[in-house]
Amino acid sequence: MEGFEHLGFLIQFEDKGSDGDFLSQAAPIFANSDPDMPAVPVPASQVLGWLLQNIASSLEHVTEKNPAKENGPPSGSDQDVVKASPSVRSPCFIEGVSKSSYVKQASDLKNSSLKVINCHDSVIYILAPLRYATIYGCSDATIVLGAVGKAVRVEHCERVHVIIAAKRVCIANCRECVFFLGVNHHPLIVGDNHKLQVAPYNTYYSRLEEHMTEVGIEATINRWDDTLELGMIDPHNSLSHPAGVSDAQAESATRLDPDHFTKFLIPNWLEGESTGSTKDNPFPLTDPYLTSQQKNQNNLGETKQILREAPLEENLKRELSCALHVYFRDWLYASGNIRQLYCQQSD
């Protein structure tokens, strides 16, 4: 614990000029971080994950701020330094999308940070390389993020399907969400979460591997089910942590049933004239999910063949076709996949 506290000289959580607290008192992972009390053992992997997440969040915050000297006259020491313009530094916002399909490609994004905020009952495709991404306050939506080289944070979302290829992912205060992950590091689950499910990455678009290479994501490493759950109650908050109440641990995510795992198809027309070399999901699937996917493909092929070879008269074929369309429409609404057929909204 003493060595951990020494990191506090490098990582400061208080405003500049304040006395500050021990680093362990800023970390929610210690059930008893009172410096006058015996330390409670915590796995080193949890400490590392917490530190990495806070460093990533701090870096994202820094990229969003425009330094004062950037807006003022340059000094003699930095006249030869090429600086990013404020429009490049500030994040791109996608906010308030409702009952629509929305797509952004690499050519549409002039910066490396993205925030998707308060979007509902929609399908959002971000087919571009990014450094940071935040998804906040969304519900009943499907959100596809291309390749995120630093970190993704998903917070306060409900009944959202999120498809992410990223270095790191942090999930906080979400309910009934499903995460299809291609992630190189432990996914972090913090805060008050309920009924979360995780599954391997399940889609692709033509430039996905190009974008992954650009931001440094390795397709051979996928720790989608190797989550780290961090404590959700601040032990120094007397309101949320009254005396005599034990610390509550963040609820863990469960693996999606392989029988419910399906490939998510991104329509080719969403990519416009963009062409790339990716022809399939670059992240290898584990056996249960690969078997389920192959089973679904075989069942679809057999059904198509049966329908083609069915010895039916023309009027019966039309009746069968109408019945299939009705059942398919009902399934679209019942499953929520009707959102994928909303008219495209690009701006």
TrEMBL record:
Keywords: Cytoplasm, Cytoskeleton. Its main location: cytoplasm. Pfam families: TBCC (PF07986). Residues 67-217 form the C-CAP/cofactor C-like domain. It is found in: Cytoplasm, Cytoskeleton, Microtubule organizing center, Centrosome; Cytoplasm, Cytoskeleton, Spindle pole. InterPro entries: C-CAP_CF_C-like (IPR017901), CAP/MinC_C (IPR016098), CAP_C_sf (IPR036223), CARP_motif (IPR006599), TBCC1 (IPR039589), Tubulin-bd_cofactor_C_dom (IPR012945). The keyword Cytoplasm applies. Residues 289-298 have a biased composition (Polar residues). The keyword Cytoplasm applies. Residues 63-83, 272-298 are annotated as: Disordered. GO terms for cellular component: spindle pole. Belongs to the TBCC family. This is TBCC domain-containing protein 1. It comes from Gossypium raimondii.
